[in-house]
Automatic annotation (TrEMBL):
Belongs to the class-V pyridoxal-phosphate-dependent aminotransferase family. NifS/IscS subfamily. Its EC number is 2.8.1.7. The lineage of its organism: Bacteria, Bacillati, Bacillota, Bacilli, Bacillales. Keywords: Iron, Iron-sulfur, Metal-binding, Pyridoxal phosphate, Transferase. NCBIfam families: PRK02948.1. It comes from Chryseomicrobium palamuruense. The keyword Lyase does not apply. It catalyses: (sulfur carrier)-H + L-cysteine = (sulfur carrier)-SH + L-alanine. Signal peptide: none annotated. Its cofactor is pyridoxal 5'-phosphate. InterPro entries: Aminotrans_V_dom, Aminotrans_V_PyrdxlP_BS, Cysteine_dSase, PyrdxlP-dep_Trfase, PyrdxlP-dep_Trfase_major, PyrdxlP-dep_Trfase_small. Transmembrane segments: none annotated. This is cysteine desulfurase.
Length: 383
């Protein structure tokens, strides 16, 4: 069976050109970039080149890029590192109710240590309102962390407007841009953020690498202790092959960013049109506002999502009910809870479909045929 992969928001296939870079690095550049001999210097040259490419992709300086093991570490370093470095000025942190668990669990950890967390609500379409942040800011607020693009429903937050509120405040502003990076054009200077997290495996790069943008002058307390890598901000031998593969992935994305956005929007629109054409009863969970082009979260009234996803899996379709980090959890999506409330029907009847490299309209047409078949089965299968 040829499977149809519609879960690119969870992870994405590695681009063949990225695989070639990984092979080249593992084969010919195995040196430690901290070593002073020729083999080490060659590795350092490649690492510096990768860092320059990553920095350029967001309008930053290479010195402002901290290589990490992925988005979770980048989020943790941003939040814990910034808070520990600023705790003498206050113990209040602001985030939103729809953040990725890498952010929410870091905040919960800090809460247990005596920090106070304000969780901003969102609208029924999943957006943080600028006014709610303005009201929540206090003199002792030291960090605001709001995600750029939501991984479950695809909402794109007004980061530039939100960050502007803390421009003249002591608080730092961090954004988790893991889903937005490589999909939307990002310029950290224009956004006005102090910290920004990314991950490679969402953009057809390798798993196990990401970076944290740390604006020059922004103080962070390191979380890992060891060598002096990453300008003493993140100890550990740098994973050169992964960094180089990450750089190649964002190069490929950046070279055709607008074309890719249009292609993804076209795929999404085709998918929705096919659902309508096949008589499927559905509602998009985000109906107004800016969305990521590759994600759509859909409510199918009357379906039991666990049964439905099993049906799709057996039919060769890969989709999910939300974040891959909560796979197997019986708890409803915290994002949908924040949007619709704890008793909403959407919590048990919504599916996230996400598109990307390799997705075709022909695949989506076939997928919808199978979706329609599953939904139109007798109601008894949902009991």
């Amino acid at each position: 069976m040829n499977r149809i992969y519609l879960d690119h928001a969870a992870t994405s296939p590695v681009h063949p050109e990225v695989v070639s870079v990984l092979t080249e690095m593992y084969t010919h550049h195995f040196g430690n970039a901290s070593s002073i001999h020729e083999t080490g210097r060659a590795a350092r040259k490649e690492l510096d080149r990768a860092r320059e490419i990553l920095a350029h992709s967001i309008g930053a300086h290479s010195n402002e890029i901290i290589l990490t093991s992925g988005g979770t570490e980048a989020d943790n370093l941003a939040i814990l590192g910034a808070v520990y470095a600023s705790q003498e000025r206050g113990k209040h942190i602001i985030t939103s109710a729809i953040e990725h668990h890498a952010v929410l669990h870091a905040c919960e950890y800090l809460e247990k240590q005596g920090f106070e967390i304000t969780y901003l609500p969102v609208t029924k379409n999943g957006f943080v309102e600028v006014e709610s942040l303005e009201k929540a800011l206090r003199d002792d607020t030291i960090l605001v962390t709001i995600m750029y693009g939501n991984n479950e429903v695809g909402t794109v937050q007004p980061i530039k407007e939100l960050a502007a509120l803390v421009k003249d405040h002591q608080a730092l502003f961090h954004t988790d841009a893991v889903q937005a990076y490589g999909t939307l054009e990002i310029d950290v200077k224009e956004l006005g953020v102090d910290l920004l997290s990314t991950s490679a495996h969402k953009i057809n790069g390798p798993k196990g690498v990401g970076f944290l943008f740390q604006k020059a002058g922004t103080k962070l307390r390191p979380l890992a202790h060891g060598g002096q890598q990453e300008r003493k901000r993140r100890a550990g031998t740098e994973a050169l092959p992964l960094a180089a593969g990450f750089a190649k992935a964002i190069e490929l994305k950046s070279n055709e960013l607008l074309k890719s956005q249009l292609a993804l929007e076209s795929l999404k629109q085709h998918f929705l049109e096919e659902l309508t054409k096949h008589g499927v009863s559905y509602t998009k969970n985000v109906t107004v506002g800016k969305e990521l082009p590759h994600i759509t979260n859909i409510f199918f009234p009357g379906t039991d999502i666990e049964t439905f996803l099993i049906q799709l899996d057996l039919a060769g379709i890969d989709a999910s009910s939300g974040s891959a980090c909560t796979a197997g959890s019986v708890d409803p999506s915290h994002v949908l809870v924040a949007m619709f409330g704890e008793d909403a029907e959407q919590l048990r009847s919504s599916v996230r479909f996400s598109f990307g490299f390799g997705t075709t309209k022909e695949q989506l047409t076939l997928a919808v045929e199978k979706i329609a078949g599953a939904i139109n089965k007798p109601a008894s299968i949902w009991k």
